Amino acid sequence: MSIDRRSGCPINLSLEVFGDRWSLIILRDMIFGGKRHFRDLLNGSLERIASNILADRLKRLMELGMLTRADDPTHKQKAIYSLTEMAITLVPILAYLGAWGRVWLPVSEELSIRAELLEKGGPPMWEKFMDELRHEHLGTPSDTPPDATVRASLQAGYEAVVARKAPGAGCDPDA
Amino acid sequence: MSIDRRSGCPINLSLEVFGDRWSLIILRDMIFGGKRHFRDLLNGSLERIASNILADRLKRLMELGMLTRADDPTHKQKAIYSLTEMAITLVPILAYLGAWGRVWLPVSEELSIRAELLEKGGPPMWEKFMDELRHEHLGTPSDTPPDATVRASLQAGYEAVVARKAPGAGCDPDA
DNA sequence: ACAACTGATTGCATTTTGCAATCAGTTGCA
DNA sequence: TGCAACTGATTGCAAAATGCAATCAGTTGT
């Protein structure tokens, strides 16, 4: 399951990295959902990835240099997956992809609010988000307080839509 | 082979449109290569798509609203495929994808020069390119002379690299 | 001691993919 | 008229990917 190298075209090579139905979904959940453990990714995504496919893609993304794996000090069997700089720089692509999908595809309102906020925020917001991800996954220093992160503001926007659509119902499957 | 709708997430829905190894390759060849016929797409791409897969993807992209098909007046069996606005607005995504691949993947110099020029040109160049595609595929008016198109300048850049790498050898498989 | 949870792995049926060969109709040329 | 080349596909088939359920060994909390 390694890279084919059908040609040296940048678009082709990019497709060989995440030209499948699951790799970008996993990266999305790590980037926007803050998921870092196998179980979180397995049970957290709306698209219900199978455990063998998740294991395969995590392995593949590590081989490609998009993820790294480390032991979790709180649990001897637990592994923490981290994004590499290579994966973090996908943020603008995900932002554009979300913006495009929001225009042309039958997206649901509550799931597209994040894409809308990210599009409205533009490149400055993407840069801020990438810096937060670098802090979170690569350990680089950051001066953003935990309650003022881009991810928190995206999540707040999501919850506002959910609350408006179902007032009083306190259920949040994505929390 | 229609859309799954695993979830209403914009990124997921986008992946269901071109989360495979061939759909974006076909769109790339139509957008950057100017290919509009089955045979051009079949023989023109470096990645050697099989004819049944090409037929399947063309059909699928039409069902999804990314392409339209029309009869070619010069040949009763010939079909001309056109990009829709939905497909034309992928240009920024392809630009970002090419830029990302150029940084992180083992691209070849002659095939990545187009991505580099497109990245350097930025959003203004993308807009100009999209206008040219609208003129070419949707018949909208345009005042750009045929020799000053974005595609022509990308092609010129490509040929300059090829000429520099193999001076005197007049072969150009992409012409 | 024991149930729940950790990151996986295995087996298996179904689906998708990719390659080679082939198709019928159209065109250009001798 | 005859025939080769070209048009957009389609078919058969082997290989690969997918998705589901069951299972695994080790760890943790009670």
Automatic annotation (TrEMBL), chains A, B:
Domain of life: Bacteria
Record InterPro entries: HTH_HxlR, WH-like_DNA-bd_sf, WH_DNA-bd_sf
Entry keywords, A to Z: DNA-binding, Transcription, Transcription regulation
Transcription regulation found in the keyword field: yes
Domain HTH hxlR-type span(s) in chain numbering: 9-109
Signal peptide region: none
PROSITE patterns for this protein: HTH_HXLR (PS51118)
GO MF annotation list: DNA binding
Name recorded for this polypeptide: MarR family transcriptional regulator
